[in-house]
Specification:
The complex is a heterodimer. Chain A contains five helices and five strands. By secondary structure, chain A is an alpha/beta fold. Chain A has a single domain, classed as Response regulator (Rossmann fold). In chain A, helix 3 links the parallel strand 3 and strand 4. In chain A, helix 2 runs parallel beside helix 3. Chain B has a six-stranded parallel beta sheet with strand order 3-2-1-4-5-6, with helices on both faces. Chain B is elongated, with a radius of gyration of 36 Å. Among the domains of chain B are: 115 residues, Helix Hairpins (Orthogonal Bundle); 136 residues, Rossmann fold (3-Layer(aba) Sandwich), CATH 3.40.50. Chain B has 21 helices and 22 strands. In chain B, helix 6 links the parallel strand 2 and strand 3. The longest helix of chain B is centred in the first third of the chain and has 38 residues. Classes of the chains: A alpha/beta, B alpha/beta.
C-alpha cells in the first residue's frame, strides 16, 4: 500500500482527494502548508507527494525545490496540483523539480496512472 | 459599647433590607407580632378591670384573658380608628391603645411602601430585561450589533412562529426601540429581550441557553475602537458553551460571528471545533473583492445566501448512490447538484467534509449527501434516472455522444463550439481606487493581494492622514502584501473638486467603502460620493466604463444607490447576517460558504456565454451544462445582459433556470459557473 502525502491548504480539496485516495487503498498523510509538508516528507518518507503550488507560509514551488535539494527527500516523486487554467503554474512546477502535474479538480483516473508510473520500480 | 451595638444592629437591619423582598416582608410580620404582644400587656394594666367594664372598645365575650387581649391588641394594630372606642378607659389602657394605633399606622405605611416599591421594581426589572426566561426550543442570540435587525428579519422569514431570545449588554428600552423603529415587532416571531453579559454563565442560564435549539453569537458593538477586542467576548462565550456539559435532550446548533479573520483559528480552538464560525471581515472582504473582479457576482451571492431565492441545501437523494456526479445533474428538474459532502470523525469530533465541483467521474457513495442549489429546501429531492441516449439538446442531438467518459478515460472538450470558445479573461484589476476607510480595509487589501497581478496599485482615499491611515492599517497587518502597492491620500470623498482631482476614469475599479473615517453617517457619505461619481465617470462610458462597487451598511439605502453609477451594491451586514441565519439551520454550510468565498478554492464566476455555446444559436440549460463540464465547471445560471442596440432589457441574474427554456445568447450575456480557483 503506497503512502501519499497531500500538501493542500484548501480544506475541501484536501477532504475530497484524501477520501478518494483512501477509497483506492492508499495511506494518506495531510499537510496544510509548504513548511508542514516539507517536515512531514522528511519524517514520514511518503511514496508520492501531491503538492498544491499556491500555499500559505511556504508556497509549493519553494517546498518542492527544497525537497528536491535534500538527499533524503530528493527521490520522492512530487506531483504538482495546479488550477485548470494556469499553464504558467505547471511550467514553473516542472522547473523547480516536480515530476508531474495534475489540474484541479483532480481527475482521479489520470492521477492514479501518474502515481503508478512514478512509484513503479525502475528497471535497471 | 452602646454605640458599637447600635451600629451592629443598624448593619444587620441594613443587611436584611438589602436582601430579597421576602426577607423584608418577614421582618414586617415579626414587627407586627412584637407590637401585638406588647399590646396584650394591657391585660396587666387593668384592661378587664371593673373600671373599664363599660368601655365600648374592650370586648369580654371570649375569656376576659389571653384571647380577648389578643383580639383587642390586634384590632388596634389593624385599624387605628378603634382608638376612639376606648373613650372612658383607664389611663394606662388608653396610652397602650394609642401606642398600638400609632405603631399600626407605621407598619401599614411600611407595608404600602413595600408593595409599591416591589411593583416598581418589578416593572423596572421588566423594562431592563432582568427577569429569567422560561422557554425551550427557542433561538438564542447573544450580543447586539447593526446586524441584529437583519438577522431577526431573516429568521422570521425562514422560521416563522419561532421564539427568539436576545441577550445583550444594551438596555432593554434601547433594544426595544430599535426593534420597533425597524418594524421587527410586527414580524411573525416572538422576540424576548434581556439585558446581561453573554459571556457570563449565570446570565446564560437566565435565558435558558441549555434548552435553546440554536445559539447565534454576534460580535457586540462596544466602545472599544479595536475590532479585535470586540472578538474577545465572543471567544469567551464560545469557550463557555463548548465546555458546558449540561445540555438538554439535544445540543443546540452553535454559530458565532468573529470580527477579525485572524481570530477565527483561536475561536475554533475555543469552540473545540463544535461551533460554526463566520468571520465578518473575511466574508465582507471576499465578497467586495469578488464583486470588484466580476460584475454581477454580488447579486449571485446575495441570492445564494438569502432565504428566499435559490440557496444551497444539503440532502441525501435516494437513487444517486453509485451514480457518477457528472451524470446526475440531468435527473433534477428544479435543483443543480454542485458538490458532495459527508460526515467524518476527527479527534473525537464529527465534522462535515466535502467538496464542491468534484470531477464528473466521482462516484457517489452511500454516505454521501448532495450539495444542491435549489429554490426551496425540500425534505426529499426527486431525482430520476435519465437515459442520456435519448435526452436531446436544443439542436436535437442526443447527449449519448457527449456523455462523460468512463473512469479510465480522460475528459476532453467534446463540442465543436468549445474548441473555438473564447478564452476566459478576468476583468483586469491593475489600478484600484478605494474611497473610504473602515476596519475591514486590511482584509480587503489582503484579498486583493491574492487576486491581482504583482504590479497592481491600490489608492486609498479617506479622511485620515497618511500616518493615521498607516497606523490603522498596520494594526491588523499579519503579513506583507506581495502584489499590491498602496498609496494614501487624505481628502473629502464627498467633494466634487477633490474627486475630480483623483482622475477616477483612469482606474479599473472604484470601491466606495462605508466610511468610518469621519463622523458622518457612512451610508450617507457613500451615497453623496456615488452621486458625484455619476457625473465624473459619465464621459468615459462610451469607451470603457469604470467598474464601481459600493458597500452599504443599511439595506434601506439600496434603492437610493440603485439610481447612481454603482454597478455592484453590497450591504455587508446583510451578507453576514444571511450567512449566520443559513448556517444556524444547516451547519454544513459553514464549510461550503468558506470554500465559495476563499481565494484559490472553488469560486463562482460569470463568464461570457460565447465560451460555452455558439452565440445566436438556440441553446438550453443542458447545452451549457455539457460545455461547462468539459471545462470542469458547473453551470449555476445565466445573466441576460441588456443591449441598447437590440432593445433587450437587462434581466439580471437567473439562477437554476427552467430546463426547457431555449435561449439565443449574445455577447452581452454571461454564464454563472462554479469553477476551480481562478487566480489572476
Amino acid at each position: 500500500m503506497s503512502r501519499i502525502l497531500i500538501v493542500e491548504d484548501n480544506q475541501m480539496n484536501r477532504d475530497m482527494l484524501s477520501r478518494r485516495l483512501t477509497r483506492k487503498g492508499f495511506e494518506v498523510l495531510l499537510a496544510t502548508d509548504g513548511s508542514e509538508g516539507v517536515s512531514l516528507a522528511r519524517s514520514a518518507a511518503p511514496d508520492v507527494i501531491l503538492m498544491d503550488m499556491r500555499l500559505p507560509t511556504m508556497d509549493g514551488w519553494t517546498a518542492a525545490r527544497l525537497l528536491k535539494s535534500e538527499t533524503e527527500t530528493r527521490d520522492i516523486p512530487i506531483i504538482a496540483l495546479t488550477a485548470h487554467a494556469m499553464q504558467g503554474d505547471r511550467d514553473k512546477a516542472l522547473d523547480v523539480g516536480c515530476d508531474e502535474y495534475e489540474t484541479k479538480p483532480v481527475n482521479l483516473s489520470s492521477l492514479l496512472l501518474k502515481i503508478e508510473a512514478l512509484t513503479k520500480p525502475q528497471e535497471s | 459599647m452602646f454605640e458599637e451595638r447600635k451600629a451592629r444592629l443598624r448593619y444587620q437591619l441594613d443587611d436584611v433590607f438589602s436582601r430579597s423582598s421576602s426577607w423584608q416582608l418577614l421582618l414586617l410580620v415579626l414587627l407586627s407580632l412584637i407590637v401585638v404582644l406588647l399590646g396584650m400587656t394591657a391585660y396587666y394594666f387593668g384592661l378587664f378591670s371593673p373600671q373599664n367594664a363599660g368601655v365600648e372598645g374592650i370586648g369580654t365575650q371570649i375569656d376576659r384573658g389571653l384571647w380577648d387581649s389578643l383580639w383587642w391588641s390586634l384590632k388596634h394594630l389593624i385599624d387605628p380608628g378603634v382608638f376612639e372606642e376606648n373613650y372612658g378607659a383607664t389611663a394606662p389602657v388608653a396610652i397602650i391603645s394609642l401606642l398600638i394605633a400609632i405603631m399600626g399606622m407605621v407598619i401599614f405605611g411600611i407595608l404600602i411602601g413595600f408593595i409599591s416599591t416591589s411593583m416598581e421594581n418589578r416593572l423596572a426589572s421588566l423594562r431592563t430585561g432582568n427577569s429569567p426566561v422560561k422557554e425551550a426550543g427557542h433561538i438564542l442570540i447573544l450580543g447586539w450589533s447593526n446586524k441584529i435587525n437583519l438577522l431577526l428579519r431573516l429568521l422570521a422569514a425562514s422560521r416563522a412562529g419561532s421564539r427568539i431570545v436576545v441577550l445583550a449588554r444594551h438596555e432593554n428600552v434601547r433594544m426595544q426601540e430599535s426593534l420597533r423603529a425597524d418594524g421587527i415587532l410586527n414580524l411573525p416571531v416572538k422576540v424576548i429581550l434581556r439585558t446581561g453579559l453573554p459571556s457570563n454563565i449565570f446570565e446564560l442560564h437566565r435565558v435558558a441557553f441549555a434548552q435553546a435549539s440554536c445559539i447565534i453569537m454576534l460580535v457586540s458593538e462596544t466602545a472599544e475602537s479595536d475590532a479585535s477586542d470586540r472578538d474577545a467576548e465572543a471567544i469567551k462565550t464560545a469557550m463557555l458553551l463548548s465546555s458546558f456539559e449540561g445540555w438538554g435532550s439535544s445540543k443546540p446548533v452553535l454559530v458565532s460571528e468573529i470580527n477579525r479573520k485572524q481570530n477565527v483559528e483561536i475561536a475554533k480552538i475555543a469552540g473545540r471545533n463544535e461551533i460554526s464560525i463566520v468571520s465578518s471581515s473575511e466574508v465582507i472582504s471576499t465578497v467586495i473583492v469578488q464583486a470588484a473582479r466580476q460584475s454581477g457576482v454580488s447579486s449571485v451571492y446575495a441570492e445564494i445566501f438569502s432565504t428566499d431565492g435559490n440557496s444551497i441545501h444539503v440532502s441525501h437523494v435516494p437513487g444517486c448512490h453509485g451514480q457518477r456526479f457528472g451524470d446526475i445533474k440531468y435527473g433534477f428538474h428544479d435543483a443543480i447538484p454542485i458538490g458532495v459532502c459527508w460526515q467524518q470523525e476527527e479527534n473525537g469530533v464529527v465534522r462535515y467534509a466535502g467538496g464542491l465541483n468534484p470531477e464528473p467521474n466521482y462516484t457517489i457513495d452511500a454516505d454521501d449527501q448532495l450539495v444542491l442549489l435549489s429554490k426551496t429546501e425540500k425534505a426529499s429531492y426527486v431525482w430520476r434516472r435519465i437515459d442520456l441516449e435519448h435526452l436531446p439538446d436544443a439542436d436535437g442531438d442526443s447527449l449519448a455522444e457527449r456523455r462523460i467518459p468512463s473512469d479510465d478515460q480522460d475528459i476532453k472538450p467534446f463540442d465543436s463550439a468549445i474548441a473555438g470558445a473564447e478564452k476566459y479573461r478576468e476583468h483586469a484589476l491593475n489600478r484600484i481606487l478605494v474611497l473610504g476607510f473602515n476596519d475591514n480595509i486590511h482584509d480587503i487589501l489582503s484579498e486583493f493581494d491574492g487576486h491581482v497581478a504583482s504590479d497592481s496599485c491600490v489608492h486609498l482615499v479617506s479622511n485620515y492622514g497618511i500616518e493615521e491611515a498607516t497606523r490603522r492599517l498596520d494594526r491588523y497587518a499579519t503579513h506583507e502584501l506581495g502584489n499590491v502597492e498602496i498609496n494614501f491620500s487624505q481628502g473629502d470623498t464627498a467633494s466634487a473638486g477633490f474627486l475630480r482631482s483623483l482622475d477616477v476614469p483612469s482606474y479599473d475599479c472604484v470601491i466606495t467603502l462605508a466610511d468610518e473615517s469621519n463622523d458622518d453617517d457612512p451610508d450617507a457619505r457613500s451615497i453623496m460620493t456615488l452621486l458625484l461619481l455619476s457625473e465624473i465617470v459619465q464621459p468615459a462610458t462610451e469607451t470603457e466604463s469604470v467598474h464601481i462597487v459600493s458597500e452599504l451598511y443599511d439595506p434601506r439605502n439600496r434603492e437610493l444607490v440603485a439610481r447612481t453609477v454603482a454597478d455592484e451594491v453590497i450591504v455587508t451586514p446583510e451578507i453576514v447576517s444571511m450567512q449566520l441565519s443559513q448556517i444556524s439551520k444547516q451547519p454544513v454550510l459553514e464549510t461550503i460558504y468558506r470554500e465559495l468565498l476563499s481565494a484559490g478554492g472553488t469560486e463562482i464566476c460569470l463568464k461570457s456565454a460565447g465560451r460555452y455555446v455558439e452565440l445566436g444559436r438556440p441553446c438550453t440549460f443542458n447545452d451549457l451544462c455539457r460545455s461547462a463540464q468539459a471545462m470542469m465547471e458547473i453551470v449555476l445560471g445565466l445573466r441576460i445582459g441588456g443591449s441598447t442596440e437590440t432593445g433587450q432589457a437587462d434581466l439580471g441574474v437567473q439562477l437554476n433556470p427552467q430546463r426547457d427554456e431555449i435561449w439565443e445568447l449574445t455577447s452581452n450575456d454571461s454564464v454563472v459557473v462554479l469553477a476551480q480557483e481562478m487566480y489572476y
